[in-house]
Amino acid sequence: MIVWHDIREEMEPEYHRWHTREHMPERLGVPGFLRGRRGVDWSRDQYRYLTLYEGKDLDVFGSAAYLERLNNPTPWTNKVQPAFYNFIRSGCSIISTTGRGVGGALITIRLSFDGSNEAKLEADAAALTEQIIKLDGVSSVDFGASRPEVTGAKTRETELRGLNRDGLFDAVLIVDGIGRRELEEALPAIAKILQESGWNFGDDDKAVYDMAYMLEPLGPSS
Length: 222
What we know:
By secondary structure, the protein is α+β, with helices and mostly antiparallel strands. The protein has seven helices and nine strands. The chain is globular, with a radius of gyration of 17 Å.
């Protein structure tokens, strides 16, 4: 599940405390959540924040245990969630992946089919992934197809945030890399690879996020 959003400026310090100390640990306590990451790009005026959750399977993000949390927000969540805006979210199924590990920064590019379709993405994704992983500074590459129906349920948390913008993209490219410098240098080549294969996107659809926080579930002995 991937989320882009902004936070009201006056609430940003509290957002960081809440997301690190309560929110992400709560999410990683839901069965099937495997890893959570938060990214930030302080230079952006829109979609400054990125949250990325990895799950055992796609059904985790529509599970009863997850919905129970969404419908029972904590007092701190009730305070912070109204500060969210420019909110885009969707569950995604992975079409192609290569590489391992977590980098110091990551690129996201939202893709729209615009006359193409998921079959074309499935046909293109493996070859695109192999081209991108060869670029200097890149450590892993993932293509995901948007599944907004999995994460589109109306819950108490969505009411707190107000307008939710689900289903605004058809697919997403996620590229992990060593750091911001390396990924910013690789971004023009990545954009060219996509465009030469017929995939178009706007300037606002691509971004480089610095890793701000990562969390995985506690092990059995913890």
